[in-house]
Amino acid sequence: MPELKEFVNVDFAMLEAKKAQIDECVKNHVKEGGPACQKCPRKDTEECVKVCACCPLVADCDKIKSYTLLQFQVGSERLRQCQASNGRASCLDCELFFECGVRHDYVRATYEKMNEGRGGEFAF
User: Fold this and answer.
1) Using N-to-C axis directions, what is the helix angle for 101-115 and 62-85, rounded to 10°?
2) pLDDT grade, residue 107 (50/70/90)?
3) How many helices (H) and strands (E) does the chain have?
4) Contact (Cβ atoms closer than 8 angstroms) between residue 54 and residue 30
5) Residue 26's pLDDT is what?
6) Cα 96 from Cα 107, distance rounded (Å)
7) pLDDT for res 49
8) Which of 47-51, 66-70, 87-91 has the least mean pLDDT?
9) I need a surface site. Which of 1, 19, 58, 60 has the fewest CB within 10 A?
10) Nearest-angstrom CA–CA distance, 124 and 114
């Protein structure tokens, strides 16, 4: 089955706008050497990345919470449309299960929503 590339009623522009806000916020608030950096195993390596999880304000940040919720909603809708276009109720029996970008984005968005952008600290 082909992976669906065209989606209806999915607001990618809003998602990109919120992502730009997050990127700007990270640039302004995540400073090298902050408390999160001290615990990070990637500290002082080429793999060091500045993300919301490194921000001391992440626990109360409405920007990342609204972004991860929208990212999850977009991912869910994309997955539903892909399944419907291929006549499937689940991805489990699809031959693209492990390679599917739509499914991969959905799984990542679900993980991000669960931890609200905090990089692994889950809020159940």
Assistant:
1) 150
2) very high
3) 4, 0
4) yes
5) 81
6) 14
7) 67
8) 47-51
9) 60
10) 7
Q: Which residue has the tokens 């809003």?
A: 14
Q: Which two tokens stand for residue 83?
A: 């399944």
pTM: 0.75
71: nearest Cα among 115, 20, 118, 14 = 14
- The mean pLDDT of the chain is 81
pLDDT one-digit tens code per residue, 5-24: 677 777 788 889 988 988 88
Counted residue by residue, the chain has a size of: 124
Q: What DSSP string describes 71-83?
A: HHHHHHHHHHHHH
Q: Which residues contact 52 (CB under 8 A, 6 or more apart)?
A: 22, 25, 26, 30, 58, 61, 64, 117, 118, 119
What is the separation of C-alpha 107 from the centre of its chain, rounded to a whole number of angstroms?
9
